Amino acid sequence: MLKKLTISIIAFVLTLSFTSVAFAESRASGEINVINHDYSEQFMSDWCWAATGLNLFIGSTGEYDNMSENKKKEVLYQQVKEYADSTGMNLKEDKYDKYERYNIGAGLRDTCMIVNNLLYENRYRDVEYNFASKARSFRWIEDDIKNGYPLGILLDCTGSTADSDHIVMINGTDTIFDTSEDYEIRIFNSDADRNIWINYEDAKNGNSKDLKYRTYVFTAEADY
């Protein structure tokens, strides 16, 4: 596997593994081209963290590209069940949906738990996903995507209209412009099941209507 050196001055930043997502949009020549994967939408209202964990695994390894949505759903919920069982969570039972009992709220650390479980069970035991305590700069994101690494991020509800936080994937960048104010990142939003382009500064500052004015504050990355 690849090895990335960590820089001591930013020790909390760990490098990420990803084979990035397709571009349906026609972009300018400065775009970093990335590889398509059949990413999974989230199946419940508060499951962005679990879907992102599954998608980080798919992006990191190329596994399950041709899986049906039902199969992805089975894998996703099994991982959540294992995590919930291991932490002693009381899972909700619901007669209407056999998966409803796994509809627990979670966060970015739990996203890392899901993807680590999948990596371990599928022989990728030299990759470790971690929660980083700060959003990364555009240059770090660009470098990771160039190297084929995926990036999970937490959007915090600190903007003007957001009513909840949300976890999504960064899977592409556009670097045609000269100034950081013009840099764009492509985000896969598992809730909406689509890719959107967002100005990086807008993502950091909570200025994007498409992100419901949430602010990019935390990062989930992988160390090879």
Describe the protein's architecture and organization.
This protein is α+β, with helices and mostly antiparallel strands. Helix content is 28%, strand content 18%. The protein contains 5 helices and 6 strands. It has helices at 48-61, 69-87, 108-121, 138-146, 200-205, and strands spanning 128-132, 151-156, 166-174, 184-189, 194-199, 215-223. The chain has a 6-stranded antiparallel sheet with strand order 1-6-2-3-4-5. α1 packs across α3 (108-121). The protein is globular and about 50 Å long. Residues 1-30 have low confidence and may be disordered.
**Rg from Cα:** 17 Å
Strand order of the largest sheet: 1-6-2-3-4-5
Secondary-structure-based class equals alpha+beta
In terms of DSSP E residues, the strand content is 15-25%
End-to-end Cα distance, whole Å, is 7 Å
* Assembly classification: single chain
Spell out the helices and strands N to C.
Answer: HHHEHEEEEHE
Number of helical elements: 5
Main sheet properties = 6 strands, antiparallel
Shape: globular
Query: Please, what is the average pLDDT?
Result: 78
Question: Can you give the helix content as a percent range?
Answer: 25-40%
State the low-pLDDT regions, or none.
1-30
Number of strands: 6
